[in-house]
Amino acid sequence: MTNDPQDMTDDEWKTLQQALPTDGPGPRRRNDRKIFNGIFHILRTGEPWRNLPERYGPHSTCFNRYNRWRQKGGWAKVSGKLQVMAENGDGPDGDAAAKLLGRMTDSSTARLNSGGLETRQA
């Protein structure tokens, strides 16, 4: 889809689609894969949103989607579904879910405490 080898594979995208909520109001969104790749790019690189490469669409769209999901707990819900898929799934779905969890967990959403790694809502 893009020139960046760090973007989601087809298996990862298929798995993420299974974890995304489908009951939201409003029109059907377009270019979800591009937007999520843009969000993961920012999480991976730590770049400012305004420096998001054009191939991911408008930086404001990626930023707004990320923030709306953060405020509504959407990231935690998707992360929970992916965790179950990674633990229970064998084959491509389980592997893809584990890789996606790695994309979603960065230094701003995880911290170490005396009990080990603790994740919090981004």
Supply database-style keywords:
disordered C terminus; globular
Placed side by side, the strands forming the largest sheet appear as 1-2
Q: Can you tell me the residue ranges where pLDDT is under 50 for at least 5 consecutive residues?
A: 107-122
Distance between the termini: 27 Å
Quaternary organisation: single chain
Determine the structural class based on helices, strands and strand pairing. Answer: mainly alpha
Strand content: 5-15%
Question: Any idea what the shape is?
Answer: globular
How much helix, percentage-wise, in residues? 40-55%
Question: What's the quick description here?
Answer:
The protein is mainly alpha-helical and 122 residues long.
What is the element layout, followed by pairings?
Layout: H1 10-19, H2 32-45, H3 59-72, H4 74-88, H5 92-104, E1 110-113, E2 116-119
Antiparallel strand pairs: 1-2
Helix pairs in contact: 1-5, 2-3, 4-5
Give a verbal description of the structure.
- The structure is a single chain.
- By secondary structure, the chain is mainly alpha-helical.
- 54% of the residues lie in helices and 7% in strands.
- It has 5 helices and 2 strands, in the order αααααββ.
- It has a two-stranded antiparallel ribbon.
- A hairpin with a 2-residue loop joins strand 1 (110-113) and strand 2 (116-119).
- Helix 2 (32-45) crosses helix 3 (59-72).
